[in-house]
Every structure is written in structure tokens, then in C-alpha cells.
Amino acid sequence: QLQLVESGGGLVQPGGSLRLSCAASGITLDDYAIGWFRQAPGKEREGVSCISSSGISSSGGSTKYADSVKGRFTISRDNAKNTVYLQMNSLKLEDTAVYYCAADGTGWGTLGPYDYDYWGQGTQVTVSS
């Protein structure tokens, strides 16, 4: 059974760091583009970052970031662990949200949530002083 499970969320002070993990079972994550999305209360789900399947790009997975997180967040894969990570540094109050990972079977990866086929249940990230 295909399953995506996020972990690593929590409470952190502004300027702090967290690393989110997206672990997969039932699929090989590297066959998919993986996106990270977030949804704050009362707001629409927004794309944070994505990484394409390694088969799409000869240099390995290509990455994209929302402007709001460029230079602060880094997405990466560990194919041996079938896991994708989102390293979040210099966290701000406005980064508070539930963070979701999702898998896109085309392998290309976009920041649009409607392009994704499978979703995890989410992990809460709260940035507060």
C-alpha cells in the first residue's frame, strides 16, 4: 500500500531550524517528483519546494522553491532511505503551517498542488517566540 509519512515538525523559535522528512512505502520515491506544500489556517495550500525524479535530469533531481523560502529551505533526496527531506533554516513566524509532502507520477515536479497524485497526512510546524 502506498503511503507517504511526514515527520520532523514541531515548535521552534524564530531564526531556528527544522528538518522535515517524507518517508515512502509502496513506491520508490525516486520514480516520482516530490513536493513540499504548506497550509496555514484560513489560507490555501501553497507549494514550498519540489524536486524532480532523478531520471528527468541528467544532473539528478532538479529543484524549485517558492520565493518566500529561497535561500532558507533546501530540499534533498536520500534514495537509499526512500526519503525526501526539507531542511528549513532561519524560520519566520509566517512559516507556521501544516507541511505536507506529495508525489507526482510524471516525475517533473511543480509547485502546483493539483499536479500531485499522492499525499501524506502532514506535520505541524509552529514558529513562535
Taken in chain order, the helices and strands follow as EEEEEEEEEEE
Global geometry: globular
Q: From the helix content, strand content and strand pairing, which structural class follows?
A: mainly beta
* Rg estimate, integer Å: 14 Å
- The overall average pLDDT, rounded, is 94
Count of DSSP helices? 0
Which segments are poorly predicted (pLDDT under 50) over 5 or more consecutive residues?
A: none
The rounded distance between the terminal residues' Cα atoms is 40 Å
- In what range is the share of β-strand residues? over 45%
Write up what this structure looks like.
The chain has 129 residues and is mostly beta strands. It has strands spanning 3-7, 10-12, 18-25, 33-39, 46-51, 63-65, 73-78, 83-88, 97-104, 118-119, 123-127. Strands 2, 4, 5, 6, 9, 10 and 11 form a 7-stranded mixed sheet that branches. Strands 1-3-8-7 form a 4-stranded antiparallel sheet, with no helix packed on it. It is globular. The N and C termini lie far apart (40 Å).
